[in-house]
TrEMBL record:
It is an enzyme of class 3 (hydrolase). GO terms for molecular function: hydrolase activity. It comes from Staphylococcus aureus. It comes from the Bacteria. This is Lactonase drp35.
Amino acid sequence: MMSQQDLPTLFYSGKSNSAVPIISESELQTITAEPWLEISKKGLQLEGLNFDRQGQLFLLDVFEGNIFKVNPETKEIKRPFVSHKANPAAIKNT
């Protein structure tokens, strides 16, 4: 799993450092997202993101029927299932 040290954090100061901050847009904090993993060079529409009990990430490619399994620690990508009959729209781990 990712450690808490790897995650970006927000630091509240000034008017935003209160139980009910009423701040202007100039004081809104932001974090810029960075690419984490590239599943494919193709422009896939990925949906259905969820984790199993072992912490593995599952997601699906809506139009080609691929289901991908990603190890978040190693970023290893596997394709354990491809649907040739129907394109899945969701995944459920049990």
